[in-house]
Amino acid sequence: MDSTPSPSSSSPFDLVSSALGRYIPRGGAAAGAGRAQAQGGGTSRQRVPDSPAAGRQDQILGAVNLDRDLRITRRNLDAPVFEGLDAVDGSPFVDLLPPGDVPTVTRRLRQVLETGEAHVARIQRLRRGDGSELVVSMSILPAAVPQEGLTVSVIAMARRLHLYAAETAIGTSLDIGDTAQSLAQSLLAWGEVAAIDLDFAVWTGEGVTGQGKGRIRLRRAALVPDRAWPDGYVTAGHDLPGDASRLLAHAVQRADAPQAIVIPDREAVERVLGSPRVMRALVPGDRSAGVACIPLVLDGAPPVVLGVAEVWRRSDRPFRDSELLDLQELVARTAHHVDLARQHQREHTQVLALQRRLLPRRGGDTIEIASIYQPATPDSAGVGGDWVNSFPLPDGRTALVVGDVVGHGLGAAATMGQLSMEARALLSAGLAPDEVLEHLDETVTLLDEPESGLAAGYSALGSTCCIALYDPVSHRLALSSAGHLPPVLVCPDGRARTLAVRPHPGLGAEFALREPFDVHTFDAPPGSLLALYTDGLVEDPAVSIDEGIGRLADAVSKVHPWDALQQAARHVVAALAPPRQRDDVTLLLARMIGYRKGDTATWRLPARDDAPARARAQVRALLRQWRIRDDTRDNVSLLVSELVTNAVRFAAGPVTVRLIRAGQGLLCEVGDTGNGRPRLSRGGLLDDGGRGLHVVHRLTTRWGVRWTDTGKVVWAEVAR
Fold it and tell me: Most buried of the four, 49, 131, 144, 507, by CB within 10 Å?
């Protein structure tokens, strides 16, 4: 056909055809020779082909004009690469497409018609009349006004262009599934079906350093095109049968050297695979087919096979040597992308495992706990440093901790783990919440130093943390915050309020900005509900932070006392979390239960010599009322006597004795106004009788000290 447009034409079709006309001069070699001779025998700057056919041999550009009904009105597909495309005037353009692509491409065509905005460089497959397919880069251009319709330009994907485009597309994701899928889609240019089977250790992110004969397991990571497959065929996400895995692994590692293999036709496939079960698992249909298997090899000594890429095509189109070389080159170029995705998957798994490790397991008898952690994105780059923790303290109280470490990824997760474990250790040692935050503040500062930091280029300065201690006897919360958003407390009558906490710049602030950490105390009667959270739950660009916290308070206030707490936490997050998360979402709900009044008793005694005897008498009377065994009663009486004696001798002011019946044990507490820390030593005893803390140590399952505003409390637990 005549593809030369008139000089005044400005439609996209004419512009593309004009380019084609300049590239393939009309008149062939004679015209070209005449022009060269007319210039005095000088050499032409543009090479003139010997014939029109020779000039078109390298042509990869074509154009098709469509009307508003998406039917072909004009076409310029003269180059040999487009031979076999049945582009007939008046026929629907979608007849050139594989059936599975018709809905998507039709939607794109109509979108360009309606909006007038071009859709550029879509990788598309076109069907030839013989059933084969051609991979092209397709652009959809609107017609120039006042004309109507569309122009579809197509560029046949030449070898180098396709290899470059494929490698560029495959390297855009660090998700191992997406990487495998991109590789499979690129391989589809050489066949009808492409599959990627990865070593299971690669799929899970583990390191693959060798190919042990006893651990051959392949998982199908990608499969294209997307269609209904026959029964028994292995699709993406499923493991290959053991014999199929071994067969593929051995096939590509013949003579211990990874290499590609080609099985040319159905008969050869049946001979090689042998088992009908393996045939059903690996062969994507009943028609005659051949396959090329190319190993994904990671260079090394020895090289490591990450998996196998399989390309299936009809046996009447055998793989040429040049095509096999192209397949091997593409797989070799992109194998390192698969390994990068494996490493990223490993980091993602480690970070999530650390996050889950820090999530509270249970609350105990005096408090009920539920927690939700929702990363911003499913990959490790989006997994940040949000963390919650809840654990019972040895003295019967419960610690509730929530923190938000700056940044995302493994550096943030490592800092988060260190701060969480340090907070737990310090709280278990009896330090008050404000003292714990002082230590965490120093830790964050040290981690930011170049010599001692956790990760180069990572800084946790500005991280936040909130610590709440719940006393199940007094039903009170002691709370300290380092730059964290204020908790929400719902009273038993359903009223919700934000707990007033003095603002703080956060952990690791500059010395001039550092402020002392405060301890705030609040009543939390049984049935109260406390919500600790991170900013990702309440931050929304459309509303202020105060309004976001108010919405959280409203949502938490609607939690019924009989509702399952974990399910309630999920509902709160679902109601508040923004549809497009920019940050991690973390929520900790704690329902206060406390001890029953009849399970605790407290006495206040003057610091006199008769205090131990009075304490013994009151404790024995209570234990008889609780129906405690005689031997346990004797042990507890002796324990309390020793603790009160030490308090009278080494401290001043009144002595407070508290006894708690908790689960299968008894918790004894003796408080005084002293600030000395009792220590168990090998040689010295604290009293003239030679007993002191050695008696305490032998009578109890555990004991310790916690500090208060007025002194200290020595606690001890006895099994009953």
Answer: 507
Beta carbons of 664 and 720 less than 8 angstroms apart: yes
Per-residue tokens: 670:
């003796």
Q: Crossing angle, helix 630-650 and helix 692-699, to 10 degrees?
A: 150
CA distance to 241, 275, 481, per residue, from 234 (Å): 9, 15, 54
Tell me which residue has tokens 């809905």. Answer: 103
- Residue 385 β-bridge partners: 405
| Closest to 703 (Cα-Cα) out of 694, 30, 329, 278 | 694
**pLDDT mean by block of 10 residues, the chain; 720 residues:** 44 63 36 33 33 45 89 86 86 88 88 87 79 79 80 75 62 72 82 85 65 66 83 85 78 68 84 83 79 81 79 82 81 76 69 63 78 68 70 88 80 79 89 92 80 58 91 92 93 91 82 78 93 89 87 93 90 82 83 88 89 91 89 89 86 86 85 77 49 77 84 86
| Residues contacting 250, CB < 8 A, separation 6+ | none
Residue type, 1: M
**Distance, CA of 471 to CA of 477 (rounded, Å):** 7
Mean pLDDT, the chain, integer: 78
Angstrom CA distances, 694 to 281, 650, 675, 683, 686, stand at: 70, 17, 20, 11, 9
CB-based burial of residue 93 (10 Å sphere; 0-12 exposed, 13-18 middle, 19+ buried)?
Answer: buried
What the block records as the tokens of 83 is: 């031979």
Nearest to 184 by CA among 317, 338, 53: 338
- The 3-state DSSP class for residue 329 equals helix
Question: Measured between alpha carbons, how far is 83 from 114 in angstroms, rounded to an integer?
Answer: 32
Question: What does the alpha-carbon distance between residue 93 and residue 64 come to, in Å, rounded to a whole number?
Answer: 9
Report the b/e string of 443-457 with b at 16+ CB within 10 A. bbbebbeeeebbeee
Closest of 398, 378, 400, 377 to residue 388, by C-alpha: 400
For residue 314, list its beta bridge partners: 289
Closest C-alpha among 488, 165, 130 to residue 330: 165
List of residues 6+ apart from 408 with CB closer than 8 A: 376, 381, 382, 383, 384, 385
- Measured distance CA(282)–CA(269) in Å, rounded: 10
Structure pTM? 0.57
Q: Which of 87, 98, 182, 89 is nearest to 132 (CA)?
A: 98
DSSP 50: S
DSSP 645-708: HHHHHH--S-EEEEEEEETTEEEEEEEES--PPP---SS--SSTTS-HHHHHHHH-SEEEEEE-
- Give per-residue pLDDT as tens, 599-640: 899 999 988 888 999 999 999 999 999 988 888 888 898 889
* DSSP H/E element including 63: strand 61-66
Residue at token pair 């000594």 = 301
* Identity of residue 63: A
- DSSP, residue by residue, 95-137: GGS-GGGHHHHHHHHHHHHHH---EEEEEEEEE-TTS-EEEEE
Helix (H, G, I), strand (E, B) or coil at 174: coil
- CA atoms of 251 and 262, how far apart (whole Å): 10
Q: Measured on CA atoms in the order 554, 558, 561, 562, is the torsion positive or negative?
A: negative
In angstroms, the CA 622 to CA 633 distance is: 10
Contact yes or no for 140/109 (Cβ under 8 A): yes
Q: How far is CA 280 from CA 26, 47, 233, 324, in A?
A: 55, 54, 5, 25
**């499969």: which residue's tokens?**
223
Question: 167, 176, 456: which is closest to 344 by C-alpha?
Answer: 176
